[in-house]
Design goal:
81% of the residues lie in helices and 0% in strands. It is mainly alpha-helical.
Length: 228
């Protein structure tokens, strides 16, 4: 049991630490980040219940609808909803990279509990593949969602509501593609999903750099006023 729990939780905390430490200017208190992690973790149970109900009734079970609506649509909507109503309007959400940190923490909270349940049911032998694909993909969807949430919060001269909706639509589309690959190419998914994950990592790292560059345009100005 301890081995399974450790193997299931390690990827989530490792990825959370990676993106948390990528904040070059104004890291948030870890207590706040952990709170959003817990919010994401609690989402697993209502979402699993809804998905189980649809599966039992045989509704939306075609590969396309199951991937984009029942899986990606439900999961990313609830993450986005929690972000919008529990984080977005808070005073501690100040910069674009803050959005990435909170987006990743919500997503990895969800992914970690999901991973624990999966490994308890199927065995620790799948821990490496689970870390490499499902857990990592949730983190990367969180980066993209958080980036646009941060952009919507800080870019006061642009249409913030459009950007906030982009924070939902983009992860749903990418998550849907991820799941559709698994549904449509069940025997050869590895050959298609691996390049998809590489591209997803490239997009996410680019968003990380863009968010830090946006912070760099603001932070030095604020720090200069304290110089002698």
């Amino acid at each position: 049991m301890f081995t399974i729990l450790s193997a299931a939780m390690a990827p989530g905390f490792a990825l959370m630490s990676f993106f948390y430490l990528k904040d070059r200017f104004d890291s948030k208190p870890f207590s706040i980040v952990f709170r959003t992690f817990i919010m994401g973790a609690l989402l697993v149970f209502p979402i699993m219940f809804i998905q189980y109900a649809f599966e039992t009734e045989g509704v939306l079970q075609y590969p396309l609808t199951k991937s984009f609506l029942l899986s990606a649509g439900l999961e990313e909507f609830f993450k986005w909803f929690i972000f919008l109503y529990a984080v977005y309007k808070q005073d501690h959400f100040e910069g674009r990279y803050d959005g990435i940190v909170y987006g990743v923490s919500i997503s990895l909270g969800f992914a970690t509990v999901e991973n624990i349940l999966y490994l308890l049911a199927n065995g620790v032998e799948l821990a490496f593949l689970r870390a490499l694909y499902p857990v990592s993909s949730h983190a990367l969807f969180g980066v993209i969602m958080g980036y646009y949430m941060g952009k919507g919060k800080t870019d006061i001269h642009k249409k913030s509501m459009y950007i906030i909706w982009l924070a939902l639509v983009t992860p749903v589309f990418l998550h849907g593609l991820y799941d559709y690959i698994l549904e449509a190419w069940k025997s050869t998914w590895l050959y298609t999903l691996t390049p998809f994950m590489i591209i997803l990592w490239m997009i996410a790292i680019r968003k990380v750099k863009q968010a830090n560059m946006a912070s760099a345009d603001i932070i030095p100005i604020e720090q200069n006023k304290w110089k002698a």
